[in-house]
Amino acid sequence: MSSTEDAGIRWPRASKLLLLLGLAGCAQQPAADLVLYNGVVHTLDPELGTQTAVSVSGADILCVGSDAACLETASPEARRVDLKGAAVTPGLADSHAHLSGIGFREMNLDLSDAASLADLQARVAERVAAVTPGEWIVGRGWIEARWEPPVFPNRADLDAVAPENPVYLVRADGHGAVANSVALAIAGVDAAEVPAGGAILRDADGEPSGMLLDRAQNLIRPHLPQETPERTREALILGARTMAERGWTQVSIAGTSWDEIAMLRELIDSGEIGIRIYAAIGGPGDDADRLLAQGPQIDPAGRLDVRSIKLFLDGALGSKGAALLAPYSDHDSAGLLMHEPATLEPLLARALGAGVQIQTHAIGDRANRLVLDLYEQAFAGLDPAARRAARWRIEHAQILDPADIPRFAELGVIASMQPSHAITDLHFALSRLGAERLRGAYAWRSLVDAGAVLAAGSDAPVEKGDPLVELYAASVRKGLDGFSDDHWGLDQALSREEALRALTEWAAYAMFQEAWRGKIRPGMWADLTVFSRDVLAVPGEELLGAEVEMTVVGGRIVFEQR
Fold it and tell me: How far apart are the first and last CA of the chain?
């Protein structure tokens, strides 16, 4: 795609001219090579509203309007797709996911739908029967909150089905894992000191229970079978294919390395990855220092941008590692911090000077307040416009003291949130937090009403990575089975259109790309998601029944339902 630079802004082909002329509808040249018609096209553009057709020329949108107007732009060789009433939205963008993790979830022992401890044990036993004694068994995805009783598994549970094989099973959120006795012995966990920013849970006799939280997992990780470049490459391809099949046109990777960036660039150039990637380098460390020295790495075609650093401040609510202002209601702890906040101050100052965006993981109310304090200190002396221009983000922002909610808009901080976390966590959040603290939990409505930008994502593989689940969670805010109770805060739900904007327009803003994507408008990138049902109109209980029929990225069809 050709582009021009204007005051530091990338303009896709033809869009600058169209916008300067105030054209909204159809440009007659060049001819379109793809036309989608006889549908419901939600442009999210106030001038264009809802139309019935859209045409594409090369990598850009050419026409948005009536069937006749868009079909008129088609070249003789153009593909014409009769949508038969299907709905088209701007291409969906997952604002927070882990692409290789999505692939590895498919390649390893997937426990995301384990219905009980017995079910988890049965799956481990099945894997034991298929491998040799002594071979590692590694899995991910279990969530004890869905079990009865909702308690963590322990080493004895795994020893019962895997007495000779080391077993290491990561909780869905990645902030906790359970290991069996063989694995604990290999890693020397019994005698190990607790790493800073981690916890080794112990039983009534003071022995390790098998549960390792956050950085305590680093005691086991060096002993696991190491992923080869070949397997990582396979995982990235599989992850991107999975996301395209679910309707995502872009993924914001929440923490990666330069080695993985090099692999992603190769796979994008070869066409093996068709979706867009917005990547945050994990920090602090050498990789983050490299980005700070080089500055943002921006692809003119928008296929792979690297302009952000991902930091962690606390753990997760489910594994009781989220840092709270007061102790957990069901645990004698207030969570943990991954870093002392003051140690991050120099990095934040360098990032601001280098034009590098910061994304910080914060789940508990204490962690969120500390991140806001750090950002406010870094922004000292900047006017409101300059603070907003930095577009620094808090990833998750799950539990907030209500007094901190207005600070997001005041500081220009983006709330990067995953709606599905609410409908997973609200099954146990009451016991963790108590009713009073739930007033600031998953507070989407309060954040938006206060003027904050809310970018939505899935955090896959922590969650499934299905945009329909995210739309449902954000706008319905009930369990997938329709369950809710008085503590679920249904008044914090978004409208359906707001939920869609959080996955499109607002997500694009969080990635500095709102000039080129997030709406359906002539001259913008041709990123489109096609659903079998009108996701803005169907009742909430029917939303999950919709299917993705087509995913288009830069004018290229990267997934099509056959």
Answer: 28
The overall longest dimension of the chain from CA atoms, in Å, is 77
Is 486 within the bounds of a domain? yes
Q: Are 139 and 83 members of one domain?
A: no
Q: Which of 223, 246, 271 is the last residue of a domain?
A: 223
DSSP annotation string for 460-509 = TTSS---HHHHHHHHHT-S-TTS---TTS-GGGPPPHHHHHHHTTHHHHH
Burial class of residue 545 (count of CB atoms within 10 Å of its CB; 0-12, 13-18, 19+): exposed
Confidence of residue 215 (pLDDT cuts 50, 70, 90): confident
CATH number at residue 547: 2.30.40.10
Please write the tens of the pLDDT for every residue from 260-272. 999 999 999 999 9
Which range of residues forms the domain containing residue 4? 1-91+518-562
Do the domain assignments include residue 136? yes
Q: Which phi and psi angles does 66 have, rounded to 5°?
A: -75, 165
> Is residue 453 domain-resident?
yes
Q: Are residues 457 and 311 in the same domain?
A: yes
Amino acid at 60: D
The separation between CA 445 and the C-alpha centre of its own chain, rounded to angstroms, equals 19
CB 520 within 8 A of CB 48: yes
DSSP state string for 206-261? SSEEEEEEEGGGGGTGGGSPPPPHHHHHHHHHHHHHHHHHTTEEEEEEEEE-HHHH
Q: Are residues 510 and 534 in the same domain?
A: no
Residue whose C-alpha is closest to residue 175's, from 395, 336, 343? 336
Residue 102 and residue 246 in contact, taking contact as beta carbons nearer than 8 Å: no
Place of tokens 């882990």: 98
Give the chain's domain count.
Answer: 3
Is there a single domain that holds both residue 115 and residue 49?
no
**Encoding tokens for residue 317?**
């609510």
d(CA 399, CA 379): 23
Q: Which residues contact 172 (CB under 8 A, 6 or more apart)?
A: 112, 140, 141, 142, 143, 318, 461, 462, 463
- pTM listed for this prediction: 0.87
What does the pLDDT look like over 508-552, one tens digit per residue? Answer: 999 999 999 999 999 999 999 999 999 999 999 999 999 999 999
Residue 336 included in any domain: yes
Per-residue pLDDT of 428-447, as tens digits, reads 999 999 999 999 999 999 99
Same domain flag for 58 and 185: no
Distance CA 224, CA 109 (A): 14
Clarify whether residues 171 and 61 are in a common domain. Answer: no
Tokens standing for residue 109? 């022992």
* Beta-sheet pairing, 137-142 with 109-110: parallel
| CA of residue 379 relative to chain centroid, distance | 26
Q: How many Å is the Cα radius of gyration of the chain? A: 24
